[in-house]
Design a protein that fits this description.
Length: 258
């Protein structure tokens, strides 16, 4: 009788441990086109349990495969997008650093994410390449081609700020719940002709496009591009922490419904 009772206890303990294992929430996994501590910290402030994957360290095909196991895509800042991607190859010499691998990687990741209807956030270069992927173009050099009314890039990029205005009726307006805010900026290129699939949801005082989202979001991924650097800003700024929170929420919803 004692042996039988011990066997029952062991069996019940095993079942309990098995249930606990299967009931453990699976951490969200976010793919990052090129990771850095700032981006990871920015996301983890919203959810410390998330896992991140630096897709830049992989071949394009391996990165796309890895993204299929993620619940969100963060396209980060970096080098200029090659102008040949948007019909201005004649202007290549006016660019600064470029990275052909990064262009190919980002384009493939965007294609995969949109096909999966996965949430996507683009920051700085990420914002720009979303517009390019969807058929838009870029300003090659803001001071020369657009004007220098607002300083968008400084030598001391950590202390370069300007104000942006938010379109209240936009998705971004619903997320941040503000009309305007000060942002950290560091870019010499920007959206020129906007993709026909997108609308501008934020602009600087010189009318430069600072944010983008779907024109018609029905049946599509959550998608948001911002020209500023929310990962370098105080999380209490409505154009920083609230964006990360919404991205994590949308990624969590995607994970539950996939």
């Amino acid at each position: 009788m004692k042996i039988r009772m011990n066997a029952v206890i062991i069996l019940l303990t095993g079942i309990l441990l098995l249930n606990q294992t299967f009931c453990q929430p699976v951490p969200l996994k976010i793919g990052i086109s090129k990771a850095s501590p700032n981006y990871i910290t920015w996301l983890k402030r919203s959810d410390p349990s998330i896992q991140t994957v630096d897709l830049y360290t992989l071949s394009v095909s391996s990165a796309v495969q890895q993204l299929s196991h993620c619940s969100g895509l963060l396209l980060t800042g970096g080098e200029d997008v090659w102008p040949g991607r948007y019909g201005k190859e004649y202007d290549t010499l006016r660019c600064t650093e470029m990275n052909p691998h990064r262009d190919s990687l980002d384009m493939a990741l965007i294609e995969k994410a949109l096909a999966m209807k996965m949430p996507v956030v683009g920051i700085c270069r990420g914002h720009q390449i979303l517009n390019v992927y969807l058929g838009g173009t870029l300003i090659i050099d803001i001071p020369k081609d657009f004007g220098a009314q607002i300083i968008h890039q400084c030598d001391d990029y950590l202390h370069c700020f300007h104000r942006v205005s938010i379109t209240n009726a936009s998705m971004l307006g619903n997320i941040c719940r503000c009309d305007s805010a000060q942002v950290t900026t560091n870019h010499h290129q920007a959206v020129d002709h906007l993709s026909p699939f997108l609308i501008a949801n934020a602009a600087s005082e010189d009318r430069l496009i600072e944010g983008i989202e779907w024109r018609d979001p029905a049946g599509k991924s959550f998608l948001l591009g911002v020209q500023w650097h929310p990962e370098r800003m105080d999380p209490s700024n409505p154009l920083s922490g609230k964006i990360a929170d919404e991205f994590i929420k949308q990624s969590s919803d995607f994970s539950l419904n996939r």
